[in-house]
Amino acid sequence: MVCYCFVLLAGALFLFWDGQKPSEGAYVFIDIVVSLVPPMIFGTTEPFFTLVKKVPARSLSNFLSIFSILSFIVIQTSFHLLAYFFCIQQPWYEPFVFDRSKVHIPPPTHVATAVLSVNCMSYVIAAVVFSPGPPFRKSITSNKLYLSVVIMEFLIVSYVTLYPADFIRRYINFKEAPKFEFHAFLFVLSLLNFVISYLWEVFFVQHFLFNRVQPWLRSLRGPIHLYEKIEKDLSHNPKWPPVGNPLDSPCGVPPPSPDYDPDTALMRFSASNKAAARSRFGAGETDEMSQVEMPSLSFSTFRGSRKK
């Protein structure tokens, strides 16, 4: 959602810079059709099969999360800029003329069409690149509902970018270019944005920085948190852990504590536990409740031997 807000802000600022603004239909299409459903079902992806020692990012305030968001915004803004300059360099381009009588109903322009076409695809890109898979969650392909929504939104945005119906174009306030190649170039530019954003986020940020650079930097800085300092002190302490060898005791179990009292321990062995033991082994099989350093059960097997 953070990237959604900043991407929409970038697209709106481009139009404000040119003296324009997105129409109400464009806001409805972006906020309701494109960017509403994915955040609602984003968390339905199941966890991965195995657990790993590495923990994921806990908040947006750490360096990698901020770097990932800022780099994504920079990439999206760069493609917005390419679409803007590509539009104004066309021979049939008509500069926007501000009309005070149409402040609340802006006329359709080619600049708004170019910028918002790339902007709509940015939300689909964010829904894919910010859905991390293993080792924390399953891949995006395992979540059929989320994958279906993303594919549907990709098809809708592609349709609106290439050749929408007249009533859809009027509602979003897009303007058809004299040549279809203009819309085709915007679609190819959006696909290139998809590929670059995915490679940057998945392979560079998540795999290289998160899995290689961040552990190396943590090994250089040493322990900072209290639990890290305690762990380091214990790893260098030869007397830790203070556990004796179980083979040193005659019964093959660790020796009892000096404060251990067999009589008190026997009293703590409640009547409910005894009743549970009798119901489990039967009245004829349970012949004693002995106390040898700790509560235990002795019963006779079907062969007549005694098992403890």
From TrEMBL:
Residue stretches spanning the membrane: 28-51, 63-86, 111-133, 145-165, 185-210
Keywords of the record: ATP-binding, Magnesium, Membrane, Metal-binding, Nucleotide-binding, Phosphoprotein, Signal, Translocase, Transmembrane, Transmembrane helix
Biased composition (Polar residues): 297-308
Signal peptide from the UniProt entry: 1-25
SUPFAM superfamilies: Calcium ATPase, transmembrane domain M
InterPro entries: ATPase_P-typ_TM_dom_sf, P-type_TPase_V
UniProt KW Repressor keyword: no
Keyword tRNA-binding: no
Gene Ontology CC annotations of this record: membrane
Subcellular location: Membrane
Stretches for region Disordered: 280-308
Predominant cellular place of this UniProt entry's protein: membrane
GO MF, one example: metal ion binding
Membrane topology of this protein: Multi-pass membrane protein
Record protein name field: Uncharacterized protein
Organism encoding this protein: Ixodes scapularis (Black-legged tick)
